[in-house]
Design goal:
single chain; alpha/beta; Alpha/beta knot; six-stranded parallel β-sheet; two-stranded antiparallel ribbon; 10 strands; binds S-adenosylmethionine; S-adenosyl-L-methionine; MT_TRM10-typ_sf; TRM10/TRM10A; MT_TRM10-typ
Length: 340
């Protein structure tokens, strides 16, 4: 019997105990393929309608995901070695020992809560979800280092977003002073204590009140969904308010800010009790370009109502200092080469 004939015949029956995983693709099924050691079935529904390159991309991502524990382990070992080398250099007097770190003072919590409403994961593309993850890391960093922190609750925290948070390492699960809740804020708080922040609100906030819970819409949408949060809050019977930006600053673009900038402004307001100072310390210089302080209280909102929101990714360059972020980035994934 020649080789071709043999391949067309039924495979011999192997007793279960003797059965070992097949080593070649040909003798399993014509649809089983091998990509760099990863066996896959072309009939798998997830490949339906996809071209060769798209399938390859999925497989590449799967391989990359599968290698995560190894990569993290490798990075940890590298860091350990580096620390040992550095210790040795200090012991030998080649390097100066680092100055003794001061213990971080205990966190002082404000009596004003903040909620990040993460109920919009179905409205964002993966890049925007990733962007939101970075913004949340920034909020947490700002909150940790602030003289007065706000108790932070992330509501409607769903599986999709949990996956995004996990992608950058699991350290978020150890964050202090942050609660991750599957429930919506309406199930957790009394409606009368809630204020949904929205650039589209007619009401202007003048101070952050004790006992109140302020909600920030956890969404990165490049302003695709204008008025989304305002509408949601109105439907739910929750008060809304916008930051008093127009009363203090004349900005180069529309006054829809990113989640982390709104959060940081609130933290700064708690510290200084001064909106102008808070805005100047948080809003990036390039957004303030061609803008001026308004000392007479004129609200110049109207003239820039139709302009688009600024690029979120650019905003990320403005606050690179957070130690938390650096640690996260170190343990996070270097991108596969062809995605960079
Ligand atoms: C990128 S914005 C979302 C824009 C979205 N289209 C919407 O409907 O609000 C993210 C969140 O930051 C808050 N925010 C942004 N700019 C604000 C402003 N000027 N005043 C109050 N809140 C603001 C809101 O809570 C908003 O939901």
């Amino acid at each position: 019997m020649d080789q071709t004939q043999q391949n067309l015949e039924e495979p011999p029956v192997v007793p279960v105990s003797d059965a070992s995983p097949p080593t070649t693709t040909e003798n399993i099924s014509p649809n089983i393929r091998d990509y760099k050691g990863l066996k896959y079935d072309l009939n798998d529904p997830k490949f339906k309608g996809l071209g060769k390159n798209a399938i390859k991309r999925i497989l590449k991502e799967e391989l990359w995901e599968a290698s995560r524990p190894k990569r993290i382990q490798h990075q940890r070992e590298k860091d350990k070695l580096k620390r040992a080398e550095r210790r040795k250099l200090i012991e030998d007097g080649v390097l100066e020992p680092p100055p003794k770190r001061q213990r971080r003072p205990e966190i002082t919590l404000a009596n004003t809560n903040i909620v990040l409403d993460c109920s919009f994961s179905d409205k964002m593309i993966p890049k925007e979800l990733q962007s939101l993850q970075s913004q949340i890391v920034r909020c947490h960093s700002a909150n940790r280092t602030a003289p007065l922190s706000m108790p932070l609750t992330i509501t409607s925290f769903d599986d999709a977003f949990e996956k995004v948070m996990d992608k950058k390492g699991g350290s978020w699960t150890n964050w202090k002073n942050v609660k991750f809740e599957r429930k919506s804020y309406t199930e957790l708080y009394d409606k009368k204590d809630l204020v949904y922040l929205s650039a589209d609100s007619e009401n202007v906030i003048h101070e952050l009140e004790e006992g109140k819970t302020y909600i920030i819409g956890g969404i990165v949408d490049k302003n695709r969904y204008k008025g989304l949060c305002q509408e949601k809050a109105t439907k739910e019977g929750i008060a809304t308010a916008r930051l008093p930006i127009g009363e203090y600053l004349q900005m180069a673009s529309r006054k829809v800010l990113t989640v982390n900038h709104v959060f940081e402004i609130m933290i700064k307001w708690l510290e200084h009790k001064d909106w102008e100072k808070a805005f100047m310390e948080v809003i990036p210089q390039r957004k303030l370009k061609d803008s001026s302080l308004i000392h007479n209280g004129d609200d110049k909102d109207k003239q820039d109502e139709d302009e688009d929101e600024d690029e979120y990714d650019e905003d990320h360059e403005d606050n690179k200092s957070a130690t938390e972020e650096k640690t996260e980035e170190k343990l996070s994934d270097p991108k596969p080469v062809d995605e960079a």
